[in-house]
Amino acid sequence: MIIPKDGVTDMSMITEEQNSVEPLVAGTFQRSVIVDVSNPRLAETGEHQRPWKKSRATSSAESAEETPLPIEMVEHIVGMMPFPSILTARLLNRSFKSLFSEQSKNARFREIVKSVSSTWNQYCPVILNRDAEWLMGYDRVNHRWQKMALGIARRNYVGLGSPWIAAQKLKGAGCLICGLSLGLFVCNVFTKGWRWLPSRPNDESPKDLFIIPDGPDAYKILTITLLRPLQSGKVCAQLYDSKTDSWSMQISNANFTLSFNSSSVYVNGLVYYMQYDEDDDRQVMRLCFYNVSEATWHAIPHPFACMLHTIETYELLMFQNRAMVVMQLIPFHNPASRAVRRNTLIVFSIDPISKEIKEEARGPAYTMHGASSTLFTSDDESIYFGDPQTVKSSVVALNVHKREWSCLRRPLCTDGSFQNKWVTFAFQPGMNPFVAV
Fold first, then answer.
1. Region Disordered: what ranges (predicted)?
2. Side-chain half-sphere exposure of 358, counting CA atoms within 13 A
3. Domains of the chain: which residue ranges?
4. pLDDT digits (tens, 9 = 90+) for 205-238
5. How many CA atoms lie less than 13 Å away from 83 in the CB half-sphere?
6. Which helix (DSSP H) or strand (DSSP E) does residue 107 occupy?
């Protein structure tokens, strides 16, 4: 048994390659020999293994114990397991592996899982280690960090090595994670299905990457590439459709120069951009959105001009199908230790129709020591303010509707922060867990 430490359930020692549990035959259970180590004589002589005389009643009971369970019952038991216990069952027992594949012969098992998957907790913030051997996410229901062994780290990626090690721009939706390595790839961490995507019409490195659910069994991937020269303002948007396994491309003119460090978020067919830079020796902040279907750009009036000299970091997020602007202000007094100063975090919402910008929250009400906020992410309830070195600092959380600020204790990762990635998406395993890649 792996014992939880400091609020983290550690499943990182479980892999398919280093499996200390013998695989069970589908539909059977195996008996374990229990040794009373408190009796030195039994422990040393091994008398616990001697075939003592058994009564007929005992033999009958053992025969009943070895009777195979119907495969339907085994599928039902495994399918009803909560997440991430069902991942553990997959890793501990290789005979269950076929149940998680995308093949139609497991339709009954998939229906069982889908019937309960909507009750699975979601995890945010999320930390993914550099080779995707495990994922750690905060479970807000049970108020703890949960570490999950994914079992996809040592697979043979067509002789190219693991794409996760050098992966950039990781984005996720449900159980799907996509990223950019030698090319674009997508992986379902529940079924462990993965693939390289077809080559794009324009194979330049994209500035932005988004994965978009498209019904129960499909997805789309949107890439935004800034065409050279950057001063031209030309932007190439390419959309991959998993239903047709093909790319479409549109080129538009943004009428201004976008930079690679501009923040962006995709919400309901619109890509919002926020950019803060120097223009002719003046500080300029631009806020606009790109309509993907129309390939048009529109500017959004914003109230941030008077705040330019006080902004330290900023980010665009999606919260309940609405774009949000999150800012951290420069504190008047920098603390000697790691801390988030009071009233230095501000959250604005953008109305999806009128594009009006309204301040939603400002805080925290007091300085939170031991916390840091350079990267931001969100789920359907809260916005989280953290740091790439999250293992060394706490995470500040804002419940948007309740306007409540809190501090989540830091997770304890055992393999060094340099190997971990703070990813800016919520992990929702119950959303289409069997979608094929």
1. 44-66
2. 7
3. 123-423
4. 999 999 999 988 899 999 999 998 877 889 999 9
5. 24
6. helix 107-117
CA distances in angstroms from 73 to 20, 26, 63, 102, 120, listed in the order given: 25, 10, 19, 20, 21
Phi, psi of 375 (to 5 degrees): -130, 145
Relative to beta strand 144-149, strand 8-9 is: parallel
- The helix-helix angle for 107-117 and 71-79 (nearest 10°) equals 30
User: In 3-state terms, what secondary structure has residue 77?
Assistant: helix
Bridge partners (DSSP) of residue 178 are 171, 186
Could you tell me the two tokens for 41?
Answer: 């004589």
Distance CA 66, CA 125 (A): 44
pTM: 0.80
Strand, coil or helix: what is 89? helix
Encoded tokens for 196:
């390289």
CA–CA separation, 138 vs 356, rounded Å?
32
Distance between CA atoms of residues 235 and 224, nearest Å:
7
d(CA 384, CA 407): 9
Q: Which CATH class is domain 123-423?
A: mainly beta
Q: Rounded distance, CA 31 to CA 39, Å?
A: 21
User: Structure tokens of 32?
Assistant: 């374990």
Q: Which of 380, 373, 227, 374 is nearest to 318 (CA)?
A: 380
